Amino acid sequence: MSKLKLLTYCLLLLGVTACYNLSEEVVPGKPTEFEPLYITRSALNSSIQKKPAQPLKKPGKIYVRDPYLFINEQLKGVHIFDNRNPRSPRPLAFIEVPGCVDMAVKNNILYVDNVVDLVAIDITNPEQPREVHRIAEAFPQANRLFPPDGLYYEHDSTKGYIVEWIPKND
Amino acid sequence: MWSCDSHDTDFRGNPDSASAMPGGQGGSMARFTIAADRLYTVDRNNLRVFNIENAEQPNFVQSVQVGFDIETIFPYQNRLFIGSMAGMFIYDIRFSPDNPTFLSNYEHITACDPVVAEGNYAYVTLRSGRDCNFEAINEVQAIDISDARNPFQVGSFPLSGPYGLGIDENLLFICDGDVGLKVFNIDGGNFTPLRTINNINAFDVIVRKDRKHLLLVGNDGLFQYEYQPEGTLDWLSTIAINRD
Predict the structure, then answer these.
(1) Chain A residues within an 8 Å CB radius of B2
(2) What predicted TM-score, i.e. pTM, was given to this entire model?
(3) How far apart are CA B127 and CA B113, in angstroms?
(4) Helix/strand/coil percent split, chain B, to 5
(5) To the nearest whole angstrom, how far is the Cα of B242 from the nearest Cα of chain A?
(6) pLDDT one digit per residue (tens) for chain B, 244 residues
């Protein structure tokens, strides 16, 4: 009896979920002009990489924590400069962080968004950054389900999270 | 003058903050900020609280539903000023940093809006455009926050397409997109334009009051200036983008 109850409950829940999904579904229309860049959970877990300093391309937000200056490279990572002398900031390193938009620093710990995750990076030596903590799906809304042109795309959750959208003719 | 041994302050270098804390300083477009040993983040509908008393072990505390289309967060004197498409929200974190207390919501017409605060006033920029409501207008508004539970507008000044902004007493720096960086003298709701650096795209600024040091970022790169109380800016350096 209780099993039957459970089954009924599950079916009911499924029905409700299905209805919900149906009403939320985007009506297939003109397909998007953008290609999604997916990242799987396991790839995301090891996606933060130390790289040599590199030029700015699409700078985003900025953050200062003496003696360092942090410049976000939109959705790519964080440039770190030694800014002891603001007349000649010295590039130290680039930390590759897919999906990164925001940064904050307390003591020697840099917090970044890494697609849907919040990650703490030890930057005691900024040239040797070390991931020390990760909160998976701290920012579920950072999974960019919809293309920037607002046109139709069928999201495939088995491929992981969407980091960014790249124009098809790029 | 530029030595790195001066004390670090939180609350964007605001000397009035309760205690000097080991956090850094972000711009007004930030969605992450550190205050009261917490990392506060905003995304779309939510203000999220992470306890970072142990910096290496951020600990998710809770998510507070704030409103819709949250864009920015700015800490000032134990308060969080949250910019959204529909207005500015003020939360208090003095007594319970884990549980921000709603104080007020200043509503305006729909536009994108970062906010900064100093003394009895908050300043928000409203921008229409691609990602925002086309009906919206482009301007900066001065809001009296002397009673944080009852904010009201006391002035405004038209702009072209503003993004981030920064403040040091009576100097207000506004990134006006492709028009460049605009410097105003402000007295509550009165805006007096002083000058414009108009050969660069300006997205966000960090104003380091203690050093009279301004960092500006935009499509062209990162620019650093030293500013004077009368609003003059002396260029220090540029980190240009690679256009290849």
Answers:
(1) 84-86
(2) 0.86
(3) 7
(4) 0, 55, 45
(5) 5
(6) 333 333 333 333 333 333 345 689 999 999 999 998 999 999 989 999 999 999 999 999 999 999 888 889 999 999 999 998 888 999 999 999 999 999 999 987 667 679 999 999 999 999 886 555 556 689 999 999 999 999 999 999 999 999 999 999 999 999 999 999 999 999 999 999 999 999 899 999 999 999 999 999 999 999 999 999 999 999 999 999 998 7
Contacts of A85 in chain B (CB under 8 A): 2
Which is nearest to B176 in space by CA: B129, B122, B109?
B129
CATH 1.10.10 matches A41-140: no
Domain boundaries, chain A: 41-140
ipTM: 0.89
Identify which of B8, B37, B222 has the shortest CB distance to residue A59.
B222
**In terms of CATH architecture, what is B32-199?**
7 Propeller (2.130)
Contacts for A68-72 with beta carbons within 8 Å, 24 or more apart? Answer: A68/A92, A68/A105, A68/A123, A68/A126, A69/B215, A69/B222, A70/A103, A70/A105, A70/A110, A70/B24, A71/B217, A71/B222, A71/B239, A72/A100, A72/A101, A72/A102, A72/A103
Residue A133 has its nearest CB partner, among B41, B57, B240, at: B57
Q: Are B159 and B202 in contact (CB under 8 A)?
A: no
